[in-house]
Amino acid sequence: MPQSLSNILIHLIWSTKDRHPCLAPGIREKTHAFLAGAVRHCDCEAYRVGGVADHVHLAVRLSRTLSVADLVKEIKTASSKWIKAHHPALTDFSWQLGYGAFSVGMSQKDALLHYIDTQEEHHKTRTFQDEYRDLLKKYGIDYNEHYVWD
User: Fold this and answer.
1) Block means of pLDDT (10 residues each) for the chain, length 150 residues?
2) Is the separation of the CB atoms in 56 and 32 below 8 Å?
3) C-alpha distances in Å from residue 140, one per residue of 86, 103, 116
4) Residue 24 phi, psi (nearest 5)
5) Its pTM surpasses 0.85
6) C-alpha–C-alpha distance, residues 131 and 120, integer Å
7) Which of 31, 41, 77, 141 could anchor a disulfide with 136, C-beta 3.0 to 4.6 Å?
8) Which CATH number fits domain 8-148: 3.30.460.10, 3.60.15.10, 3.30.70.1290, 3.40.50.300?
9) What is the C-alpha to C-alpha distance for residues 132 and 47, in angstroms, rounded to an integer?
10) 16: which DSSP letter?
């Protein structure tokens, strides 16, 4: 076959360092827009970027030429630099070291987008840690609680 094609939908999630709630509403929307642009810069498609004050969710179509690890490294690095440069109160900002990446079937895309769109409502009753543990369980990922949080 002379052409390589793919359609891989990934749900990415990571928090601010120590889950510090520093992404206030004015900063949050601009950060989400920057993350979407950074994803596009990596030749991927950002279907949705959302989250709350202490973490982000992204629904991304992964480029056929890029690994998940390389994409996350690129967009976390670029966005961290951007946040520090554009928000003087956040000069010490950083993302957590790790991340979660979950494969999602295209038939579940609308459900994922709705999930990301309703993060504000969702987190009125649930912490990021509880949400993340539930996602790890849902996707059958074994983990050591000691190493999940930084």
Assistant:
1) 87 96 95 98 98 98 96 98 94 95 97 97 93 94 86
2) yes
3) 39, 12, 21
4) -65, 160
5) yes
6) 13
7) 141
8) 3.30.70.1290
9) 21
10) B
